[in-house]
Design a protein that fits this description.
It contains 29 helices and no strands. By secondary structure, the protein is mainly alpha-helical. The chain folds into 4 domains: 71 residues; 126 residues, no CATH class; 164 residues, Tetracycline Repressor, domain 2 (Orthogonal Bundle), CATH 1.10.357.50; 176 residues, Exocyst complex component Sec6, C-terminal domain (Tetracycline Repressor, domain 2).
């Protein structure tokens, strides 16, 4: 039979072992010793088998009882008997083992004593641990939890060794220790709350944080031990490895992210400065947190945690994520600047990561960029296009506002030197300045781009300014009573040209590197030319005003009325002087140009009056009287313009000399010397044409047609010796041709 075969095999094995033990004569002395050792081994194996069957018997009893209670279907009965659970069975098992111990003297049973002792009191220990957790005594709570886990794990391990396939018994043990799992989770929850508030806790109660770190370290050790045992035996208790250190770092990471995200208190709708505020709060929080981490937190963790560097990386990552989110929003121009300034400059400055108290642990040069260059470029590109349309809009609005001032009934303001001006140049350049200062915060390259943009837009703006000034003049000519302060505002427009010129130079000097000067020279030249045109046209329109008022008085010159003693020139001088009181508010160099131009135009108009042949002197007496009046009036003009140039040594003498030279031709009493006198005049002023000489001789009134013909023909051969400073004046003056009625006379 099978039983006999087993016995035979056992005997054969025993014979072999005994033979092995007794190979030398001296070993015979130890036979008794061998016998006792083998007896102990046998007893131990038998005892283990008995214990195992005892546990199985208890478990079987527990199952039968459970099934019976379920089958009865009596809820009350179940409730009353539910306390007869695994604990009572284990207690029963415990007394059985004591009994076996007394009878079998088994060494192996000693191994089970501690487990059974703690197993019996599990619910009590769970309650105590729960209380400790609630009181915040985390280290003691963890110590008890470790004891409980140790009991469970060792029981499970023994069960696994005896019968690794028996999952049912394993589950029974696991169920019995079920409350312990909840305890572990409860304790973990407390730890993570401390970890979440670690930067606050470390200031208020650093020992609490140290306790948490010690608990995590203990768990890490147990994890390592259990993993080693798994390698050797294949067994690992449920819930292992706990990986609490890894969880701690995950919680820290989430806490850092939440801290960064939670700093945005406002939106654009509620506060225009929302982004500036948000970035400033982030800067402050991050700097404070890292300083605490370096000075206090670092001391609460073992060095191998490298806690400061880990936190530094977490903050950097969280910031990078947040900045990318912000960059992806639909930001306005000023918000793009705020974001880029913060990302590119503030972050690594002494106000944040470059803070001296963070070094040497934080090296700003080794920090990665918060956002990629690609994102930076996209933001800059968006900024430039937004800024372009903004500047165009601002300039248009500024000009519209300025135009409204032009029609006011009050004079424009004057600067500290008394020159009329409007606020336009100040508004335009203040806007440019602000945008350049903002761009300079980001980098040099952007600053240059913004300067080029400002000047480019300025160029187009000046063309519009010129057109508006022209329209202003045209509107005024339709009704010269309106606007009331036309002259004063036209002066302000002229002066603004000078201010614009100076502002462009100062802007370039302040914001442009010397090597970039060439790239702007052409646009600068173009702007200067436009400004000169505006000023020149402005001056010209003001002189037109003067001469429109002078027209009736100029029409009186060289007429019978004039000869009879009219004071037309006196009125002309008073009117010019009156206008020039206003023109004193024009800035140099425009004022100087204007005085010269006014002088020239007065002389031209005077000579034109002569060439109009409105008078023809009847005799030598009249010629003398007329000539002397002309010389006197030339002197009046000379005096007036000397006064207007305030003795600035302006060479305007020569203009009045022309009137005097013409007067000499008219005054001449000896007709035989007429040719000589005329030839002297022509040699000084070579742009005098034949028709001018003919007109002059007509006014003289005593030269026959042949004589005129003779003089003109002879003059053509004569040499000319003009003054090198002479600016041709006669070419502007046309002589009216004789009409048919005149010829019939």
């Amino acid at each position: 039979s099978t039983m006999e075969e087993t016995d035979r095999e056992a005997v054969a094995t025993a014979v072999q072992r005994v033979a092995g033990m007794l190979q030398r004569p001296d070993q015979l002395d130890k036979v008794e010793q061998y016998r006792r050792r083998e007896a102990r081994k046998k007893a131990s194996v038998e005892a283990r088998l008995k214990v195992q069957s005892l546990i199985k018997l208890s478990v079987h009893g527990y199952q039968v009882m459970s099934r019976t209670l379920n089958l009865t279907g009596n809820e009350e009965l179940r409730k009353n008997h539910l306390h007869i659970t695994f604990r009572e069975l284990v207690s029963y098992c415990f007394y059985c083992l004591v009994f076996i111990f007394l009878y079998f003297d088994c060494v192996v049973l000693l191994f089970f004593f501690p487990f059974l002792f703690s197993v019996v009191s599990v619910p009590e220990i769970v309650r105590e641990t729960q209380d400790l957790i609630e009181r915040g005594e985390l280290l003691q709570a963890h110590r008890k939890l470790m004891d409980l886990e140790c009991s469970r794990d060792n029981l499970m391990y023994e069960q696994y060794r005896m019968d690794s396939k028996n999952t049912h018994d394993m589950n029974l043990i696991h169920t019995y220790f079920g409350d312990m799992q909840k305890l572990s989770e409860e304790l973990a929850k407390q730890l993570w709350m401390v970890v979440q508030r670690s930067l606050v806790t470390v200031r208020r109660d650093p020992t609490l944080l140290v306790s948490v770190v010690r608990i995590i370290e203990r768990e890490e050790k147990i994890d390592r031990r259990m993993l080693d045992r798994k390698k050797q035996t294949g067994f690992i208790p449920p819930g292992r490895p706990k990986k609490w250190k890894e969880k701690m770092f995950n919680i820290l990471e989430r806490t850092v992210s939440t801290r960064i995200e939670g700093t945005q208190a406002d939106t654009r709708e509620s506060d225009k400065m929302w982004l500036v505020r948000h970035l400033e709060i982030i800067r402050k929080y991050v700097l404070d947190d890292l300083l605490v981490a370096k000075t206090l937190l670092d001391q609460c963790f073992p060095p191998h945690y490298d806690i400061f560097n880990k936190l530094l990386n977490m903050y950097h990552q969280a910031l990078s994520t947040r900045m990318q989110e912000l960059a992806a929003e639909d930001l306005e121009a000023n918000e793009i600047v705020s974001l880029l300034t913060w990302v590119l400059n503030t972050y690594k400055s002494a106000e944040m990561m470059g803070n001296s108290e963070l070094s040497p642990e934080v090296d700003v040069n080794s920090l990665d960029p918060l956002i990629s260059q690609n994102v930076v470029d996209q933001l800059l590109s968006k900024y430039m296009s937004t800024l372009t349309s903004n500047i165009i809009g601002w300039l248009r609005k500024a000009l519209e506002t300025d135009k409204k001032d032009w029609i006011k009934e009050t004079e424009p303001e004057a600067d500290q030197d008394g020159y009329y001006q409007t606020t336009l140049p100040a508004i335009v350049f203040q806007m440019f300045e602000q945008n350049l200062q903002v761009a300079a915060q980001i980098n040099e390259d952007l600053k240059t781009k913004v300067l080029l943009l400002c000047l480019q837009q300025m160029n187009s703006f000046l063309t519009r300014y010129k057109d508006e000034a022209q329209l202003y003049k045209e509107e005024h000519l339709k009704n010269r009573q309106y606007p009331q302060c036309y002259v004063q505002y036209m002066i302000a427009v002229i002066n603004n040209c000078q201010t614009f010129k100076e502002s462009i130079i100062s802007l370039k000097r302040k914001y442009l590197k010397m090597e970039m000067e060439d790239t702007l020279s052409s646009s600068h030249t173009s702007m200067d030319a436009t400004l000169d045109v505006i000023a020149k046209e402005g001056c010209s329109s003001l002189l037109d005003e003067v001469f429109m008022d002078l027209e009736p008085h100029l029409n009186e010159l060289m007429t019978k009325k004039w000869l009879m003693g009219s004071n037309a020139v006196g009125t002309i001088c008073v009117t010019v002087e009156d206008y020039f009181n206003d023109f004193a508010k024009i800035k140099k160099p425009y004022k100087k140009t204007m005085t010269v131009e006014a002088h020239r135009r007065v002389v031209v108009e005077y000579i034109r009056a002569i060439m109009l042949k409105r008078i023809s002197f009847k005799n030598a007496e009249e010629r003398k009287e007329g000539a002397e009046k002309m010389i006197k009036e030339a002197e009046q003009f000379r005096f007036l313009f000397k006064k207007l140039t305030a003795g600035s040594g302006e060479d305007t003498e020569g203009l009045c000399d022309i009137i005097e030279a013409i007067a000499e031709v008219i005054k001449l009493t000896d007709p035989s010397l007429l040719y000589l006198e005329v030839s002297t005049l022509v040699s000084k002023y070579p742009d005098i044409r034949d028709d001018h000489i003919a007109a002059l001789l007509t006014v003289r009134g005593d030269a026959s047609r042949d004589m005129k013909q003779n003089i003109i023909e002879t003059l053509d051969q004569g040499p000319s010796q003009p003054n090198p400073n002479y600016v041709p004046i006669f070419k502007e003056i046309t002589v009216p041709t004789l009409t048919v009625p005149k010829l019939l006379k």
